[in-house]
Amino acid sequence: MPPGKRAAAVVGVALSDCGRLDTATPYALHAQAARRALADSGLDRSLVDGFASAGLGALAPVDVAEYLGLRPTWVDSTSVGGSTWEVMAAHAVDAIAAGHANAVLLVYGSTARADIKAGRRTSSLSFGTHGPAQFEVPYGHSLVAKYAMAARRHMHQYGTTLEQLADIAVQTRANAVHNPHAMYRAPITVDDVLDGPVIADPFTKLHCCIRSDGGCAVLLATADCAADAAKPPVWVLGTGTAVSHTTMSEWEDFTTSPAAVSGRLAFARAGITPQEIDIAQLYDAFTYMTLVTLEDLGFCPKGEGGAFAAQGRLTVGGDLPVNTDGGGLSACHPGMRGLFLLVEAVRQLRGEAEEGRQVRKAGGQLPRLAVASGTGGWFCSSGTLILGRD
Question: Model's pTM, two decimal places?
Answer without folding.
Answer: 0.96
